[in-house]
Amino acid sequence: MANTESLEQLYDYLNDEEDARTCKAIDDEACRETPKNYFLILISNMLTSLGDTLSNPKTVLTWVMSYVNAPVMLISFIVPIRESGSMLPQLFIAHYIRKRPVRKMVWVLGSLLQFLAIAGIGFVALSFEGSLASWLIIACLIAFSLSRGLCSIAFKDVLGKTIPKTKRGKLKGYTSSVSGALVLAAGLFILYKSKDDVGIEFYSYLIFFAASLWLIAALIYANIKEYPGETDGGKNGLKEARDRLGLLKEDKHFRNFVITRSLLLCSALTAPYYVLLAQRYVGKEAYLLGLFIIANGVASIISAPVWGKMADKSSKKVMTYSATLTAGLGLLIVAIIQFIPAWRDQNWLYPVAFFVLGIAHQGVRLGRKTYIVDMAQGNRRTDYVAVSNTLIGFILLITGGLSALASLVSVEGIIALLSVLGILGALKSATLPEVE
C-alpha cells in the first residue's frame, strides 16, 4: 500500500498534479491504474532505448560487420533495413492487432523477438566470418526490424488507452531523458574501452547485453494493466490495408501530417553526414565515436523533457521549431566548411553540431509521435500509425539512396539538400491544425 502511495505521489509530482487527477481521453478504470502503468512504460522503453544504442547499425553493428570481414555492399544495407523494415509491414499487420481487445502482449511478443534477433547477431559474430556471417547478420537484422513493427503499432495504442492525453508528451520526454543518461554512460564506457585493443568478443558481449534489455523490458511491459478496447475490423489483411490507404485520400488532416513527417526525416537522415565530415576533416580516431555518442546522450537529457512539455501544449509547434533548428544547423555547417576553412578542421565542431542536431531530432520525434497519438482514438489511431509508418518505410528506402550519392555529390551538398527539406517541413508543420 505504501509503495502504491509513493508511486502515485511521484507520478503527481512529475506531472504537476494537485488535488484531482485529470484523465483526458481514457476511462475511469484506466485512470486508476495510470501511475503504475506510467512507470512500467517508462522503464520498459528506457531499456529498449539503451538496447537500440548498444546495437546501433551506424556504430556497433558496422564495427561487428567489419570484424567478420563483411562486404562493404552488405554493410551499406544495415541502416535502411533496420529503419524501413520495421515500418513497411505495419499496414498489413495492423488488422491482426485490431482483433485483440488487449494489445500489450503484441508489444511483449515484438520485444521477445527482438531479443532473439539481437542475441542471434552476437552469436553469429562469435561463430562465423566472411559472407556467411554477413548474410546471417542481415537475416537477424531483418527479423529484428520486422519485430519492431509489432512494438511500434502496439505501443502507441496501449499508450493511448492507458495514459491521459495531456501526460503522454511528458512520459515520452522523461523516457528520452533517462535513456539519454544511459546512452551517456554507454558512450563514456565505449570511450574508455577504446584505449584498449578490443576485439570481436567485446562487441559481441556488448550485443548480448543489448539483447538482454529487450527480454527484461518484455517482462516489465507484461505487467501493464490494460483494459479491453475496440476490436472492430480485423478483416482480410490486404483488403483492410487497401481500404486504410484510402485515409490519405479522404482525410486531408492525416494526409498533410504524412507529408510533414516525410519532410521531417531530414533530422534523422542528416546525422551520418556529420560523422562523415568529421572523418574527412578531423580523422577516424576512436575518441570521436565516443564523443558523438556522448553528445547525443546529453542532447536527450537536456532537451527531451522540455520538448515533451511543449508537445503536450502544441505538438505541431514542436515539429516546426525542431525542423527549423535542423535546417538552420545544416546550412550553418555548410557555410562554415565552404567559407571558414580554419574552423572545419577543429575536432570540437562536429560533436557540437551533432549535439545540436540531437536536440532537434528529439523535438521532431516527440512532436510527431505526440501529434499522431492525439489526432484520433481507438482503432483510428491504429490505422493512422500503420499507414503513416508503412509509407515512411518506403520513403526511407528511396531516400536511403542518398548514401550512394555521396560519392557523386559532395557531403556538404547532401546536407544542404536535406536542410531545404527541413525548411519545407517546418513550413508544412506550421500549417497543421492543433490537436486537443
UniProtKB/TrEMBL annotation:
The keyword Transmembrane helix applies. Keywords: Membrane, Transmembrane, Transmembrane helix. The chain crosses the membrane at residues 60-81, 106-126, 132-151, 171-190, 202-222, 254-275, 287-307, 319-342, 348-364, 384-402, 408-427. PANTHER family: INTEGRAL MEMBRANE TRANSPORT PROTEIN-RELATED, MAJOR FACILITATOR SUPERFAMILY (MFS) PROFILE DOMAIN-CONTAINING PROTEIN. This is MFS transporter.
